[in-house]
Design brief:
Radius of gyration: 17 Å
Strand order of the largest sheet: 1-2
Number of helices: 9
Distance between the termini: 20 Å
Low-confidence stretches: 123-134
């Protein structure tokens, strides 16, 4: 039988590589992998997945900050709403049977996969269907490499952060799979900026999710 510690290390390395490339997908993959390989229930795997993602995303975010590619105001706004909504998601997760959480997670996985395939054919799909507004509500100032802050941009960042935080707490995922495609569709940020900004939000929201889970139950590391 393969040592569980070795499995955990391999999973951590793979998830870290994935997050550094895409800015998303770490926890949404780590959760089912932990459940399958380490035979954990969804409520036991969720805080572990969030902790691993918080550390990996935090390191990547610090690198991004050092390189100057994190749009820290946008990340702060996303994280603020995520931090508010994550504990609500965690609270509801304690009330919902594990079977229903697994079904909901499977539906989210299906949606993410479908969205990835469809977005490759229609890059504006998410924005056109979710926001029904102009192509880029959050415009980047080419002279300063900073966003023009408008009510439309702020509203969409608040919505994105809220959704990412709630789903993060409810299902034990990082929220990057919500923030990343949303930022790509509502802004004209460079891809590396989107990745770094998404990871910054993910690190903070995931950490709050871990703390929230710890307030309800012990975390078996």
């Amino acid at each position: 039988m393969i040592d569980p510690n070795l499995i955990a290390i391999i999973l951590g390395v793979l998830i870290g590589i994935l997050m550094s490339i895409t800015g998303a997908g770490g926890a949404i993959l780590s959760l089912p992998l932990l459940m399958y390989f380490l035979h954990l229930g969804v409520k036991d795997a969720a805080p572990i997945a969030l902790l691993a993602v918080s550390v990996a995303a935090g390191i990547a975010a610090m690198i991004g900050l050092k390189q100057g590619v994190v749009r820290y105001k946008a990340a702060a706004l996303l994280a603020l709403m995520g931090i508010i909504m994550a504990p609500i998601g965690v609270f509801l997760a304690q009330k919902i049977p594990s079977l229903w959480l697994q079904i909901l997670f499977a539906l989210v996985l299906f949606y993410v996969g479908w969205q990835a395939v469809f977005s490759a054919k229609s890059p504006r799909y998410l924005q056109d269907n979710l926001f029904q507004t102009s192509p880029t509500p959050c415009e980047l100032n080419p002279a300063t490499s900073r966003l023009f802050w408008t009510a439309s941009c702020t509203q969409r960042l608040l919505l994105t952060g809220s959704a990412a935080g709630f789903i993060s707490g409810l299902l034990g995922v990082g929220g990057g799979f919500v923030a990343m495609p949303s930022l790509l569709k509502i802004s004209n940020l460079e891809h590396r900026m989107v990745v770094a900004t998404s990871l910054t939000m993910t690190a903070l929201v995931s950490l709050v999710g871990v703390i929230s889970y710890a307030s309800y139950t012990s975390i078996n590391l």
